[in-house]
Amino acid sequence: MREELVNRIEIDLDNLLHNYQVTRNHVAPAEVAAVVKSEAYGHGAVPIARALQEQGCRTFAVAFVDEGIQLRRNGIPGDILIMGATLPNQFRAMADFALTPVLADMERAEAWAQLAQQLDERLPYHIKSDVGLGRMGLMPEQGEEAAATARALDRHIELVGISSHLSYPSGDEELNLSEYQKFMDFCAPFEDFEGLQRHLAASQAAARFESMHLEMVRIGGLLYGINHIEPAPLDLRPVLSYSTRVAQVKTLPAGWWIGYNGQHPVTEPTDVAVLPLGWTDGLASYHIGSTDLLVKGQPCPLVGTCTDFAMLDISRVSNVQVGDEVVLIGTQGDAAITAIELGKGAGMSTGQLLGKISLRVPRLYFSEGRCREELSILNPK
């Protein structure tokens, strides 16, 4: 591990695998598809997928074709589902890398079948249904028509799954059960397809609704120890911590300003710690005035952000020095900040927050107390 690192994200692979086993036991006999899109929500797609694959995970879900190719080029076996938009001009690349598309309409299924004929291969695919989210997928009433088309194409392409996504999985149970029923109605005409994997539930629904586990669940947040349900339904452990170090300490006089465009007025003499990270590293202007970071185990208000810097009011903490640790996510002393809390400070979900953190913040992967790997702009995967 490089001693010169200032900003750092630490990934606890032991906790990741604990969460995987807890989740897998909770949803059994349903299969767990590990969601590693958006660099595994900032955790690093390849190291995360590799660790899970070694633990027995055999299905991974990403959003885009390039994300699937990235996994294949790094030796990740098993099924890789492309859950996002796929266009016919991407189909050859998906076939070349043995990626499985989740198709939003049957016209795309016909194009997938044409490619399969050309390659003389029977290519797998899933169908996507929209049960209330209003994005990609066939409408619930199109199930009969889609099943008929799937049967007609069955010589050339193999339907292996049907998917959808709830619109508000942490919300009202009645709404969720209504959308579940729409999904089941869509799936009903496909009963003659053997071994079909139906997958509707993602992390929150998987934790809340046992009836929605079906043959497969897609798990992202729960793997990473991110739980939005209280009380926590599963014994999850945090996987990611994020810290930096103080770059400068100074006292600003009353009448000064902090940040671009007068982000924060200084109304009285204020001790400020300047941090070497900013907008590119997950923080946002919206964090100002609503977010505390930890210095010496004490919460300190964020009072300024720029592309590469952030400023903390450390007036209530004594003897802060250059090089002192500052925690954005994780524990320090008796205090803690979760990824959920840091995201809420700027009105962001954890996915939005963690996905914003560029690879100039190195990810360090720990197992059994040792750093096993680094993912960064100097060590890209």
Description:
- This protein is of the alpha/beta class.
- It folds into two domains: 13-219, Alpha-Beta Barrel (TIM Barrel); 240-375, Beta Barrel (Lyase, Ornithine Decarboxylase, Chain A, domain 1), CATH 2.40.37.
- It has eleven helices and 21 strands.
- It has helices at residues 13-27, 37-41, 45-54, 65-73, 91-96, 106-119, 143-153, 173-187, 203-208, 339-344, 350-355, and strands at residues 8-12, 31-35, 59-62, 79-82, 100-103, 123-128, 157-163, 197-199, 216-219, 240-245, 248-252, 257-258, 264-265, 270-275, 292-295, 298-305, 310-313, 325-332, 335-337, 363-367, 370-375.
- The strands form three sheets. Strands 1, 10, 11, 14, 15, 16, 17, 18, 19, 20 and 21 form an eleven-stranded mixed β-sheet that branches. An eight-stranded parallel β-sheet has the order 8-7-6-5-4-3-2-9.
- The chain is elongated, with a radius of gyration of 23 Å.
Structure summary:
The protein is an alpha/beta fold. Helix content is 27%, strand content 27%. The protein folds into 2 domains: 13-219, TIM Barrel (Alpha-Beta Barrel); 240-375, Lyase, Ornithine Decarboxylase, Chain A, domain 1 (Beta Barrel).
